[in-house]
Specification:
By secondary structure, this protein is an alpha/beta fold. 29% of the residues lie in helices and 22% in strands. Among the domains are: 127 residues, 3-Layer(aba) Sandwich (Rossmann fold), CATH 3.40.50.1000; 130 residues, Rossmann fold (3-Layer(aba) Sandwich), CATH 3.40.50.1000.
C-alpha cells in the first residue's frame, strides 16, 4: 500500500455566488473558481482552503471533525507506484525540460513507462504555444509525443469557452502570445489583441478617450512578453464596461522557466495587473483548476484514482492532482526544493517526492 503515517489536518470551506451572465449559467460549479491554493475570491465563486497541522471544524452539535493528509514521503519503491496507476500526467517545465534543455534521463523513463502500457499525458500552464507548437518542441528534444497527448493552458482557454457555449458572435481579447490565438482560431472564435498590440502606445492628451470593441465577451490573459499599458487599459475597459464580459486566466504562476539559468516572472504577473485594475478575480482554466483534469478524464475515459500527477510546483501541479483526486509525485528538478517542501509553513503535501523522474529507473533497479 502507498501510504504514510505522519498526519496533518486540513479544513476546506466552499462558497458559491450566483452569476447573472447569460452564458455563464451552463458552467459546471466546480469550474467556477479562481485558485483553491491562493485563498482568493473569484468573480463568480470562491473556494477557500486552509491547511494546518492542528486544526478542526465544529459541527452544530459542537463535535470537532478532522480531515487528514499524510506528509510527503520520499519515493522508495517506484514499481509499486507505477503498478498502482494507469496514467501519468506530467508537467513540462521543470519536469521534462528546463528552458530548451531536456532534463537528464527523461527519454529512457518515458520509454520504460510506455513499455509497461502506461498512458502518458503532458500538461503545461505555459500558454505561449499551441498543442501543435508544443508537439514540435517535443520532437526537437528527441521525444516521441503526439499532439493528442499534450494539453497546454492555451488549449484549455479555448476548450473552456466551448464548454460554456460562449457565443460565436462575441469576440475574445487576448493578452498573451501566439499559442492562445492559434487555439482560439482552431475553436472557431473571433479574437483581437495578442502580440499585435505589443507595439501599441497610448498618447495621453487632455480629453483623450480610449475606444474599445463592445462585442468583446471575454478577456483571456496568459503569459505575455509583450505586455504593455495599452493592453492593460484595453482589457480593463472590456471587463469593466462590456456587460457580462468574462475574465479568464490561463494560470497564475508566479515564475516560469524561460531559460535554465534562472526563474523569470510568470503569467501571474500579467493576470495580477488586470485583476488590480478591474478589482475582479479571474476564472483560471490552467492548473490547479480541475477543468483540464475533468477534460482529460472524460476524453480518455480515465478513472482519476488511476492517475498520478507528476510536477515540480506545489501550488499548481500538486494541488491540481489533489483537487482531481489523483496520486501526486513532486520532483525536485524544477521550482520546489526539499527545504521548501519541508518548511513548516508549507501546507501542500504530495503523496511522494523524488529528485527527478528518471529516479523511476534507479529506484526500480534498487527495488529488484
Amino acid at each position: 500500500m502507498l501510504r504514510s503515517s505522519t498526519l496533518t489536518q486540513s479544513v476546506t470551506v466552499t462558497a458559491v455566488r450566483h452569476s447573472h451572465r447569460q452564458w455563464f449559467q451552463s458552467i459546471p460549479v466546480n469550474y467556477r473558481f479562481c485558485d483553491a491554493g491562493r485563498n482568493s475570491l473569484s468573480s463568480n465563486s470562491a473556494i477557500f482552503t486552509w491547511k494546518r497541522k492542528a486544526s478542526y471544524n465544529r459541527n452544530r452539535s459542537g463535535m470537532g471533525t478532522f480531515t487528514t493528509r499524510a506528509l510527503a514521503q520520499p519515493l522508495k519503491n517506484a514499481d509499486e507506484l507505477i503498478d498502482s496507476v494507469e496514467t501519468f500526467i506530467f508537467d513540462c517545465d521543470g519536469v521534462i525540460w528546463k528552458g530548451d534543455s531536456l532534463i537528464e534521463g527523461v527519454p529512457e523513463t518515458l520509454d520504460m513507462l510506455r513499455s509497461k502500457g502506461k498512458r502518458l499525458v503532458f500538461v503545461t500552464n505555459n500558454s505561449t504555444k499551441s498543442r501543435k507548437q508544443y508537439g514540435k518542441k517535443f520532437e526537437t528534444l528527441g521525444l516521441d509525443v503526439s499532439e493528442e497527448e499534450i494539453f497546454a493552458s492555451s488549449f484549455a482557454a479555448a476548450a473552456y469557452l466551448k464548454s460554456i457555449d460562449f457565443p460565436k458572435d462575441k469576440k475574445v481579447y487576448v493578452i498573451g502570445e501566439d499559442g492562445i490565438l492559434k487555439e482560439l482560431e482552431l475553436a472557431g472564435y473571433q479574437y483581437l489583441g495578442g502580440p499585435e498590440d505589443g507595439g501599441k502606445k497610448i498618447e495621453l492628451k487632455p480629453g483623450f478617450l480610449m475606444e474599445h470593441d463592445e462585442d468583446v465577451g471575454a478577456v483571456v490573459v496568459g503569459f505575455d512578453r509583450y505586455f504593455n499599458y495599452y493592453k492593460i487599459q484595453y482589457g480593463t475597459l472590456c471587463i469593466r464596461e462590456n456587460p457580462g464580459c468574462l475574465f479568464i486566466a490561463t494560470n497564475r504562476d508566479a515564475v516560469t522557466h524561460l531559460t535554465d539559468a534562472q526563474e523569470w516572472a510568470g503569467g501571474g504577473s500579467m493576470v495580477g495587473a488586470i485583476s488590480g485594475s478591474t478589482q475582479r478575480e479571474p476564472l483560471v482554466v490552467g492548473k490547479p483548476s480541475t477543468f483540464m483534469m475533468d477534460y482529460l478524464a472524460n476524453k480518455f475515459g480515465i478513472s482519476k484514482s488511476q492517475i498520478c500527477m507528476v510536477g515540480d510546483r506545489l501550488d499548481t501541479d500538486i494541488l491540481f492532482g489533489q483537487n482531481g483526486g489523483c496520486k501526486t509525485l513532486l520532483v525536485l528538478s524544477g521550482v520546489t526544493t526539499l527545504p521548501m517542501l519541508q518548511n513548516p509553513n508549507n501546507s501542500i503535501q504530495p503523496d511522494f517526492y523524488t529528485n527527478k523522474i528518471s529516479d523511476f529507473l534507479s529506484l526500480k533497479a534498487a527495488a529488484v
